[in-house]
Design goal:
- Strand 1 (13-15) and strand 2 form a beta hairpin.
- This protein has helices at 3-7, 25-31, 41-44, 53-57, 59-64, 80-88, 92-98, 108-123, 129-135, 141-154, 157-169, 173-184; strands at 13-15, 18-19.
- The chain has a two-stranded antiparallel ribbon with strand order 1-2.
- By secondary structure, it is an all-alpha fold.
C-alpha cells in the first residue's frame, strides 16, 4: 500500500518504509526548535501542531478506528483564521495559561507562534497584516523571522512597508536575512 506516501503533503516518505523526518510536518511543527526551512513552509498549509494525514489514510488504522462522541475530540467551532490570529497574539503568560496542561507546551511559545506565522503566511490574507506586524517586534527572533516570511507571502504595500521599517532596525542576522528575502518575494 502506498496511501501514506501518496497523501503526505511534504513528501516526507522518500520510499516505502522510509520517512525523512526532516520533511515531516509533525517534526517541523512540534520537534524542530529552529527555523522551518523556507521551501517547506508552504507545504505546512494551516497546520500548527503536527499532521496525521498518514495515519488518517492508513487502511490498517481505519480498520480499527472507532468514532467518538467525546467533546474534547470534536472539531472546534471557531474558524482557523480566528484561531491563528488569537495564537499569534499570545504573550508568555497567556501561552502558559492557555496550554498549561496541554502537549502544545512542547513547542514552547516561540515554536507555536512560529507555526502560526507560517500558517498566516499560507493563508495570505491581508487581514493578518496587523498581527504579523506586531510579531515583527516580538522579543523572540524565531517569531520575528517567520512573521517576516508571512508578510512577504501576503505582499501588499502595507506588508512591504512594515518589512522595510523592520529591516532598518533589526539587529539579528538571521531575521535580517528573512526580512530581505521577504522583500524580494514579490519582486
Amino acid at each position: 500500500c502506498t496511501r501514506c506516501l501518496d497523501a503526505c503533503p511534504a513528501n516526507a516518505f522518500v520510499a516505502p518504509h522510509i520517512l525523512d523526518a526532516r520533511r515531516c510536518i509533525s517534526y517541523l511543527t512540534i520537534e524542530l526548535k529552529g527555523p522551518i526551512p523556507r521551501h517547506l513552509r508552504p507545504l505546512i498549509a494551516n497546520r500548527i501542531f503536527g499532521c496525521d494525514i498518514c495515519q488518517e489514510v492508513c487502511p490498517w488504522n481505519r480498520r480499527f478506528a472507532r468514532s467518538t462522541a467525546e467533546p474534547a475530540f470534536q472539531p472546534g467551532s471557531e474558524g482557523i483564521a480566528t484561531l491563528l490570529l488569537d495564537l499569534i497574539a499570545l504573550d508568555d503568560e497567556a501561552f502558559r495559561h492557555r496550554f498549561r496542561n496541554s502537549p502544545v507546551k512542547r513547542t514552547k511559545r516561540r515554536g507555536l507562534l512560529r507555526n502560526a506565522a507560517v500558517a498566516l503566511g499560507n493563508w495570505a490574507n491581508p487581514a493578518a497584516i496587523p498581527a504579523l506586524i506586531r510579531s515583527l517586534h516580538d522579543a523572540e527572533p524565531l517569531i520575528r523571522g517567520h512573521a517576516a516570511w508571512a508578510l512577504g507571502r501576503i505582499g501588499t504595500e502595507a506588508a512591504r512597508e512594515a518589512l522595510q521599517r523592520s529591516l532598518s532596525s533589526e539587529e539579528d542576522v538571521w531575521v535580517r536575512e528573512e526580512l530581505a528575502q521577504a522583500l524580494q518575494a514579490r519582486d
